[in-house]
Amino acid sequence: IEKASPDWLIEVVPTYTSIYVYYDPLKIGYSEVVEAVKPFLNAEPKKEKARIIEIPTAYGGEFGPDIEFVAEYNGLSVDDVIEIHSKPLYRVYMLGFTPGFAYLGGMDERIATPRLEKPRLKVPAGSVGIAGKQTGIYPLESPGGWRLIGRTPLKLFDANREPPTLLQPGDYIKFVPISEEEFWEIYGGKER
């Protein structure tokens, strides 16, 4: 739909089970949008080669303050949590919550952990979290209630980049464990 770029289209947002079409109601009516979108919904999906993006991640310590809870909750060691979390390829199903927040599918249920009872007011950008049977990465500093197990030094959202989000629906990502020293080397020095 976006590639066809009709002048009334503002944005298309894929979710797990639907597609939200933002449109300019001054240029087109609802029933016309429905008719315009139908051919796209019935079309055979194009097979585009998915990107696989490696996400360097420092686990535990100041980067993952909840990793010990995740381990204890699931009867595992911290090393087990890191190994289990970094093993699969995760599919980016959708972006939401904040710009560039990737909801990832494919997490091993052995590390599933409930959300925090009281969300944090400030989660650092790049934090990798677990909530229930899902894992995700906070692209921007924001409030959040996911259990933090690590952090990536990559900049996942940059308003001056095109596209502004590093990850896109349909991409696959692989978490790659790194040390604290490697984190700061990639990040460009200690936070101030």
The residue-averaged pLDDT reads: 90
For CATH, the homologous superfamily of the largest domain is named as: Cyclophilin-like
Number of domains: 2
Which percent bin holds the helix content?
A: 10-25%
Strand neighbour order, sheet with most strands: 3-10-7-8-5-4-11
- CATH class categorisation of the largest domain: Mainly Beta
The CATH topology of the largest domain corresponds to Cyclophilin
Give an overview in words.
It is a single chain. The chain is of the alpha+beta class and 192 residues long. It folds into two domains: 2-40, Gyrase A, domain 2, CATH 3.30.1360.40; 52-187, Beta Barrel (Cyclophilin), CATH 2.40.100. The protein contains four helices and eleven strands, in the order E-E-H-E-H-H-E-E-E-E-E-E-E-E-H. The chain has helices at 30-42, 67-73, 78-86, 180-187; strands at residues 9-14, 19-23, 52-59, 90-95, 102-105, 120-123, 127-131, 134-137, 142-144, 147-151, 172-178. The strands form three sheets. A seven-stranded mixed β-barrel has the order 3-10-7-8-5-4-11.
Task: Show the helix and strand layout.
Blueprint: E1 9-14, E2 19-23, H1 30-42, E3 52-59, H2 67-73, H3 78-86, E4 90-95, E5 102-105, E6 120-123, E7 127-131, E8 134-137, E9 142-144, E10 147-151, E11 172-178, H4 180-187
Parallel strand pairs: 3-11
Antiparallel strand pairs: 1-2, 3-10, 4-5, 4-11, 5-8, 6-9, 7-8, 7-10
Compact overview of the structure:
By secondary structure, the chain is α+β, with helices and mostly antiparallel strands.
